[in-house]
Amino acid sequence: MKTKYIYTLFIMLSVALCLTSCLKGNDDEIDYSQYDDMAITSFAITAINKYTTTTTSSGKDTTTMATLTTGLPVFTIDHYKQQIYNRIPLSAGCDLKKVLASITSKNSGTIVLKSLISDSLFYYSSTDSIDFSQPREIRAYALNGSGFRAYTVTLNVEPENATTKQWERVADEENVPEALYQDFGIQRKIFDGDEGDTFRLSKDGFNTWTVELLGQGEDASLLPTDGIAWVSFPYSASINTDYELLVGSCENDEKACTVWRKIVEKDIPETAPRWVNIPMTFSQDYYLPKMGTLSLVYYNSNVYAIGDDGNIYKSRDGGLTWKITTDFTLPEELGSHHIKAATDEKGELYLRDLDNGQLWHLINLSEAQ
Fold it and tell me: By C-alpha distance, which of 348, 303, 293 is closest to 323?
């Protein structure tokens, strides 16, 4: 739509508001003021397609597509510089040419997009895909047509070469994480201590145990008994804080894992963190299935569950929901999916085949070259 048509619309809106103002009675207290605000108040991606290419050891490439709707980065709006951008980049392989976005303006001012190739302007719609493959101008027009404020929207994304990953065999056991050879265990018996109900957790194959606190009113029967997995990672909502997840099978559910979470604030050591169960009702049918062997890993800034059903599950919301992902695949050469997964201190992912002892390392081909 050309610029002149948009200005025509604003003139019509202004006339309508003026007529309405003239018709109101002296005792009418309704405010029909014509807003002159010109500002984008929020910007968020609601859906974007991601393409992932994996390469087997035989050199075969496979490309898969997944539509991302949750766990997307938060956008910063700089009104002074009139810029909108994401500090945390989108995952490599995201298609910036077809993006669904939610954009709002102050006092419902009209939002329009400027063409990437001309001065033409188009009305924004939350149901129409937008091309953000290059920085793009978005305008917020005042409701009374007095003017507009233009913002430059830039979508930052990881380099494309980060999407190409390949599994390689590892011959030396000394070069893999110790966690590949350790199991998790829980003593579910309740100990009534000074700080409330507790249980005991082992992360190193039952050699050492830590006393863990349950949240007030939590049901200890929902603690996992088999297929137990645990992971800790930085909590993005708070600085110097960790988020821990504990999952596994329990007798209370025949198909889904029980999921527990704990938030550890390192700056407040005197505050004892407590485990809280995430109810199944929160999963919206996207639950983590029960499996005999299960691993949780924090890899590439995401939480994954890898088990013996051959799928890889990803949680973008702290363990509430789990969806099968194609961010990466398991080695085709695996004899079975009876495996254990772990990351090392650098955050690189390793697998151990529990049937034959084979070790695997997931590498970025761009880093290996």
Answer: 303
Strands 274-277 and 294-299, by their bridges, are unpaired
Distance CA 276, CA 273 (A): 10
For residues 148 and 141, the answer to whether their CB atoms sit within 8 Å is yes
- Using DSSP's 3-state secondary structure scheme, residue 342 falls into strand
> Which CA distances in Å does 254 have to 101, 206, 250, 276?
39, 26, 8, 21
Question: Residue 198 CA to chain centroid, in angstroms?
Answer: 31
> How many angstroms from the chain centroid is the CA of residue 252?
28
Residue in this structure with the two tokens 């910063």, named with its chain if needed:
76
Residue 70 has pLDDT above 60, yes or no: yes
Residue among 198, 167, 171 at smallest CA distance from 349: 167
Cα separation, 130 vs 113, in Å, equals 9
pLDDT band at 35 (very low <50, low <70, confident <90, very high): low
Q: Rounded distance, CA 228 to CA 206, Å?
A: 12
What does the pLDDT read at residue 72? 85
Taking residue 70's Cβ as centre, other Cβ atoms within 10 Å add up to 14
pTM of the model: 0.60
Q: Exposed, middle or buried, 98 (CB in 10 Å: 0-12/13-18/19+)?
A: middle
pLDDT of 30 reads 39
